Amino acid sequence: MRYGLDFGTSNSAISLFEDERVRVLPVDPGQARPEIMNTLVYIRRDGQISIGRAASEAYYRDNVGREAVKQRITTDQTFKSYFASTGEIEEQIVIEVDINQPGRFFQAIKSFLPEDGYGGTEVWGKFMTLEQLVALYLGEMKRRADEYLGREIDSVVLGRPVFFSPDGSGDDLAEERLRRAAELAGFREIHFQYEPVAAALHYEQELAGPEEYVLVFDFGGGTLDTTIVRVGKGRWKQGDRRDDILATNGRVIGGNTLDEEIMEHKLFKYFGEDVRWSEQRLQLPHYIFAMLKRWYTIPNLQQQQIYDFLDDIGRVSTGRKQVKALETLIRKNYGYSLFQEIERAKVALSKDWETRISFIHETIAISEYFGRPAFEKIIAGHLRRIETCVDETLASAGLEPGQVGAVLRTGGSSYIPAVQKMLERKFGAAALRFQDAFSNVASGLGVAAAHGTWNH
User: Fold this and answer.
1) What topology is assigned to 3-64+104-187 in CATH?
2) Nearest to 201 by CA among 171, 166, 172, 159
3) Are 6 and 218 in contact (CB under 8 A)?
4) Cβ(127)–Cβ(120) under 8 Å?
5) Are domains 3-64+104-187 and 209-435 of this chain identical in fold?
């Protein structure tokens, strides 16, 4: 027997085809969707490792409200500068580190697989390769799945994108790294299947008519990938389906991108966007707000000179409350929990017409009405880019929208109503197939594992 394993940028899942049906296994118990596990790893200073939702909870417990203590450390590395007066000067690189940092938090590690410039990172005095980091996650998924089934399974069909990077330059490296990580995780027999093919396998098994073309619309947390796949009765029994992929395209747009837009357009005002100071009515520096757009870049602002600057501004500006809220956000590591609330509100708008973004911590007091029309206005530019991506994919395949028999959606961001409306307008409501966008790739990989449908 073999597992089907969807190792995703934001979420992952593992499945098994048994007794003529595929099951996505509950490897993250206690969660609302225990069969879907966040692709997160948290390694504490004491060596304790958490994955999935437990990783985000451990990071939250250890860091939210904690003030970073920075120390300047001189490294062994050097850089060279040239000055007209003195010539070339070689200096050692000095970095600032948080000496009280309780743990290292890793997310989106799949996105680094094709990067030959990133081999790994030092974790508490020990260098860990990228393969070892991925293996921590895959190995724990395997252990939990084995424990749930009461037996060990050491064969797997892993999903992989058609291209790991836009130009495909790192594809061989990425697949080899993923294979090595699976080996380190305890798998002995390892195969691969393309993720869009996996998404189409369930649909393909139910086909009774002639072959047709489907659009696999994969809109997840980090990227948008669109693929035209040829499907047909009996074709799911074939192994390598490379020739059935007529066209593939993508954009670096995902749920995280939309969260950044919400932060900028709805919440920057709570952190001093409109603050003016000095006789020249100056604004706060743009680089501060550039760091605020992503929760993981906010800690880059934890510098004493920034704290001193904000303290000075707070005494002479028109928005002391907002400046104090900004300092608290930076100093007390509230970025991650704030973006969790942003994501919650965004997801709520897929079901409800309106919601509120609420975040009350220390000097931060946010209660912001957020309606679906405002959200769609904020992301309008991205919606146009998404539609352009779909049109380019159709053109590359030489197809008109009417020639696409079905649209198979995967990835949580595909639930956004404005995205669904665009697809319905282009392909017709009857073409949209309502599958589980979070687990259909894993389910298809389970089918592939059972029937030997993998790349050769």
Assistant:
1) Nucleotidyltransferase; domain 5 (3.30.420)
2) 159
3) no
4) yes
5) yes
Backbone angles phi, psi at 370, to 5 degrees: -140, 115
Pick left, alpha or beta for residue 302 (phi over 0 → left; psi -120 to 50 → alpha; otherwise beta): beta
For residue 149, the one-letter residue type is L
Nearest to 410 by CA among 376, 445, 384: 445
How high is the pLDDT of residue 94?
Answer: 55
Supply 104's token pair: 């290292």
From 21, 360, 331, 393, select the one nearest 196 (Cα to Cα): 393
pLDDT in tens, 258-301: 999 999 999 999 999 998 887 778 888 999 999 999 998 998 89
Return the number of other C-beta atoms located less than 10 Å from residue 34's C-beta.
16
pLDDT tens digits, 193-222: 988 888 888 788 777 677 889 999 999 888
Q: Can you give the three-state secondary structure of the chain, one letter per residue?
A: CCEEEEECCCEEEEEEEECCEEEECCCCCCCCCCCCEECEEEEECCCCEEECHHHHHHHHHHHCCCCCCEEEEEEEEEEEEEECCCEEEEEEEEEEEECCCCEEEEECHHHHCCCCCCCEEEECCEEEEHHHHHHHHHHHHHHHHHHHHCCCCCEEEEEECCCCCCCCCCHHHHHHHHHHHHHHCCCCEEEEEEHHHHHHHHHHHCCCCCCEEEEEEEECCCCEEEEEEEECCCHHHCCCCHHHEEEEEEECCCHHHHHHHHHHHHHHHHHCCCCCECCCCECCCHHHHHHHCCHHHHHHHCCHHHHHHHHHHHHHCCCHHHHHHHHHHHHCCCHHHHHHHHHHHHHHCCCCCEEEEEEEECCEEEEEEEEHHHHHHHCHHHHHHHHHHHHHHHHHHCCCHHHEEEEEEECHHHHCHHHHHHHHHHHCHHHEECCCCCCHHHHHHHHHHHHCCCCC
Q: Cα–Cα distance between 136 and 93 in angstroms, integer?
A: 31
Q: Where in the chain are the domains?
A: 3-64+104-187, 67-101, 209-435
Amino acid letter, 240: D
Q: Which residues pair with 73 in a beta bridge?
A: 95
Count CA atoms closer than 13 A to 447's CA, side-chain side.
23
> 356 pLDDT exceeds 90?
yes
| Tokens (6 digits) for 428 | 């017709």
pLDDT at res. 108? 87
Q: Please tell me the distance from the alpha carbon of residue 220 to that of residue 11, in angstroms, as a whole number.
A: 9
- CATH number (3.30.465.10, 3.30.420.40, 2.30.130.10, 3.40.630.30) of 209-435 reads 3.30.420.40
Q: Residue 201 in contact with residue 433, Cβ under 8 Å?
A: no
